[in-house]
Amino acid sequence: MAAVDEFVSIYREALPVLLIALAGGLFSGLVLEAIIERVATFPGLLVAVPVFLATRGNVYGALGGRISSGLHQGLIEPRFQRDDRLINAIVASFVNAVSMSVVIATLSWAALGLLGWESASLLEFVAILLIAGVLTSIVLIFGLLLVIFAGYKRGYDPDNLVGPIVTTLGDIFGMLFLLLATISVEVLI
Amino acid sequence: MVIGSNESLGSWQASRIVRNMIPLLIVLSMIVLVAGVTLENAQELLAEYGILAVMVPTMIASGGNLGAILSARLSTRFHLGLTELRIRDRTLWANVAAIFALGLTVFTTLALGAYAIAALAGDPAATLFELLTISLVSGIAIISIAVVLSFAATWASYRLGIDPDNVTIPIVTNVVDVFGMIIFIGVASAVLGF
């Protein structure tokens, strides 16, 4: 009954993490509700929200997947250390995330222009997404590695952890920092 | 510490990771823009039914999570050399069944959680039955799309000789994001008669 065992083990291992992801998702949903109320100040901002969150997921999902495979293959160890592979992977993810913030701002602004919908200025989009992007990246890099390493040492398969951790941390902190960024940009500009 | 110049790092070299990923990230952003435009367009629906806005991140993220779990498992299978996908492989079907069971659990809990939040806020604009219908109908559609895409993307990236770690999960989660947003907004509008 290997198939039944496989079913039960995946369900058991993934469910707690998915339920935590659900709680995190509901929390970020409440923040999204608050962001929707602020859209009047920065019209068109909602266009950027899914792309911003998805890109966090892409960049840090790839980092997590890489770390997970690295652990499985014995290429890296499950702790914070000055390991060349680990450092290269982290630096690459940060460069990717921050440069993509500028790309997302430009794409969203351009899409609104093409659709002829009301839009905040390009400068406002770039400022909001850069602030939110840098802050979210810092939290995600440390949060992700911390949970993967701790989970791996306790015998959890990192494959089951990466996706949910990235989306949960990414949604909660991405949404919070996006809200924070709109408030700061409103004060600054 | 060596960043970007040591050939022995191979596929772990920072500059190589960035070079490989940026084009994909840009293409994916353009795809997910569709979800953003759908969200922006649904602003009135979300203002009328605030509880839907609360459900949006989980609705979108859960499909991606389930796809990511399945893709990661398939990727690891390939890394470990189990490169054949057979229709009669019971372990594969157990994986798919587990993903559906997990999804149904999560989407049912989502509807209950959203209803509880709305009730606590004193604003039950939608009934529990409506929220369950919205969550489960969109949920089943989203899980199905996530499963099909996980298999297709892992298999294709393996065939094309691209490391699935960098490719599979992003493609699956992003395309699921777009379908998830469109399906959720569509099903919610239909059920609530908006």
Extract low-pLDDT stretches of chain B: none
> In angstroms, what is the radius of gyration of chain B?
19 Å
CATH class label of chain B: Mainly Alpha
**For this structure, what is the CATH homologous superfamily of chain A?**
SLC41 divalent cation transporters, integral membrane domain
What is the overall number of helices of chain B? 6
Q: How many H/I helices of chain A?
A: 5
Instruction: Please provide the ordered H/E string of secondary-structure elements of chain A.
Output: HHHHH
Can you tell me the CATH superfamily of chain B?
Answer: SLC41 divalent cation transporters, integral membrane domain
Structural class of chain A: mainly alpha
Largest sheet of chain A: none
Q: What would CATH call the architecture of chain A?
A: Orthogonal Bundle
In round numbers, the mean pLDDT of chain B is: 86
Which spans of chain A have pLDDT < 50 for at least 5 consecutive residues?
none
GO molecular function (chain B): monoatomic cation transmembrane transporter activity
InterPro entries (chain B): SLC41_membr_dom, SLC41_membr_dom_sf, SLC41A1-3
GO cellular component, one term (chain B): membrane
Domain SLC41A/MgtE integral membrane (chain B): 56-187
